[in-house]
Amino acid sequence: MAYTSNPQIGRVRLEAVKLLRKGWSTRKVARHLGYSHSSVVRWSQRYENECLSLHVHLQTRSSRPHHHPRELPQDIIEAIRTERLKHNRCAEVIHEDLKEQGIKVSLSSIKRTLKRQGLIKKKSPWKRFRPHIPRPLVFAPGDLVQLDTIHLTRPDGTRYYIYTLIDLYSRFAYAEYTERFSQANSLKFVLKAQRLAGFRFKTVQTDNGPEFGRWFSDMLGYKGTKLRHSRVRKPNDNAHIERFNKTIQEEREKIWIEENLQKRITAYLYYYNNERRHLGIGLQRPMEVVQRY
Fold it and tell me: Is 102 helix (H, G, I), strand (E, B) or coil?
């Protein structure tokens, strides 16, 4: 922090030096400006030492000390930097690694050093806070619906996609072919599946794919549906939809041939929802469970 916060002090100092150049004495200048004699002398010496012109305001120097008596030695700072750049691990891991090397430094000092060295990614002040949504208990259709995207590749290397969805209570499933995936297409798919199912989706759970981003979450929120994401690299969190993706491929081996693909998917979904018995719901059919609600 500076010794003074007066924004006009630079202009006052410049005026003092100009009056001295005109032949005024330092004491006369001090009385005229209302400052001490020693201050005027120091201002004049700074102008002479710094070779400033009479058009530059003499700015206030910071009163912050250049060194702290208990600051970390440079070798410890370099050790912290080295450990951070080696594997990009957090301060807690760096703290343990330095203790093994016989370097004694507190965890708070490591965090402070990483921050000063610019080795910590700061959270954006514009990022919207999104509270964690706990996994709901499933007591009725629509309490929790899992959603996923199957990526398929043509012989020429281009891709096409299959949106898949399953309700955990009734095991009602829906799938749809699309040439490209996006958040807008994801929203259309969910709303269409909800209309065909005949019950409202209260919570939708997806992985962390780009087609299930913030816009998709906000639009679902406007429709009264919550969106929660599974943990990163934890596909078991979406075990039901992963099992459905495998089931549809095992029971219909040629279903992914692109010609008339949506017709074959629709035919399989009718069988899956209306004729196929499911062990997970007591050998019932999904539509039998849905119709009771």
Answer: coil
